Amino acid sequence: MTQQQAYSTLEVQQGASEQEIKDAYKKLAKKYHPDINKEKDAESKFKEINQAYSILTGKEQQKSGGFNGYGGYGGYGFNSDMFNQFFNGGFNINFDFENGWEQVQTNKRRTPQNGQDININLMLTAEEIFSESEKMIKFIVHKHCKKCGGTGSLDKNLNNTQQCGNCKGTGHLTKISNSAFGQQIMQTTCTNCSGYGTILRNKCNSCQNGLVNEEETLKLKINKGDYFKKNRQFIKNYGHAGMFGGRRGNANIQLIADQNSINNFDFNRIKLKDK
What we know:
Strand order of the largest sheet: 3-11-10
CATH class of the largest domain: Mainly Beta
Shape: elongated
Structural class: alpha+beta
Number of domains: 2
Distance between the termini: 100 Å
Largest sheet: 3 strands, mixed
CATH architecture of the largest domain: Sandwich
Mean pLDDT: 79
CATH topology of the largest domain: HSP40/DNAj peptide-binding domain
Low-confidence stretches: 60-103
Number of strands: 11
């Protein structure tokens, strides 16, 4: 492809500025990407657009492992799910023509989330299995922070945020490295904003997303025969609290027999009590 043909392919005039070339490329790349354009010539058109952009910018992206056909950047296929989310408002994509399709701003929002259940194994002696008993169970769970009411924000406003300076609002960090197979992209969740792309302006410094680890005490009554009738019990709202003020999960308690206690238990005592 000649330089004149490249200008024609991107539908810009000869001598167009770098910004005009980038704007034209952005528009045409979205239009003809085969993941969203199902016309027969979309793939070949997309390849031509990439080649034209490479020629006019001097990046030679195809030779250095950049956009290779419609397979994507650095040999990694472009994620069609990301395109779908983009057109449904899930992401705000800023095309980074220096480094590829990497500036993807997330619209992930902080909303109250349901807390997880907690599983507890409760050991019972033979005496406790064959008679009524009361057990005090202590365990560590996530609870809502009293300082911020479990919201993670001192003003209790989850919408009072600002862009994360660490990831520039993308929610992830991108590392591009060169290898014998071209450029490779590695992405990790931004630890500064936990993948949200924003940070709370009045973030509570006493918790993590509204949660703190605290000891919980649960009093459980064990009726005679519960081990045989319902050895798994569900106690509502004793599990982990949810982030950003979300409701608590449940405690799932599994009753387990102490085998050593069973082996040494005098079962005649049960018969005498039953008479």
